[in-house]
């Protein structure tokens, strides 16, 4: 899916987050990076329809405002930074809720089959009848990803999906996201703080700073010493591994020199 954003502006009260932003995304996996308050999460919420910005969003050349609501629900899926559930619902029930399209929705055999297939696809069938609050952080995140995929979206939006996960789960999660994106032909956009994860798994990186697009391109073209210094205010050593992937090692804060 081709995503185009034209003259995008949004602010909270009198505080402008970004103004007349323009960019296009056509890559399979695009990662948004940048310091705190750069506007990454706000941008994802605008694309997801959680917030209402000024400007135009185009999906494959079609203005998002021209889509019917039911089509948008199927088209895009958004996984926020924190997905807290305090109920005693089982994993299967939570995925069923992701299928609901109205307050009067009734479960049918097709719905049950779809949920079973998603659980099987992600390899978490064994969690189906367990309560969500019985699960570990990594298992919960897998369930939330499953719920994001339940409608087979063309656009997947994820805000810091590795928050609170150990290194093993972070790598497994991104390997899974990469696999799903390619197999299902989706466009996936992820807001992320970890530059090395972004470098390894992104096809395209968009660097945001103070509500603007500072740079956009392949990991090796974007993650340079100049970018790290200008955007993050640190000195870093950047090396390229045998796969051509940059590796960033922070050295010190420029402000502390």
What does this 3D model show about the protein?
34% of the residues lie in helices and 29% in strands. It has helices at residues 40-48, 69-75, 91-99, 109-121, 137-149, 167-184, 195-201, 219-222, 225-232; strands at 3-12, 15-25, 29-33, 54-59, 62-63, 76-79, 155-159, 187-191, 204-209, 212-217, 234-240, 246-253. The protein has 257 residues and is α/β, with parallel strands linked by helices. Helix 3 (91-99) packs across helix 4. The strands form three sheets. It has a six-stranded mixed β-sheet with strand order 6-7-8-3-9-10, sandwiched between helices. A four-stranded antiparallel β-sheet has the order 2-1-4-5, with helices on one face. Strands 11-12 form a two-stranded antiparallel ribbon. The longest helix has 18 residues, at 167-184. 32% of the residues are buried. The chain has one domain: Rossmann fold (3-Layer(aba) Sandwich).
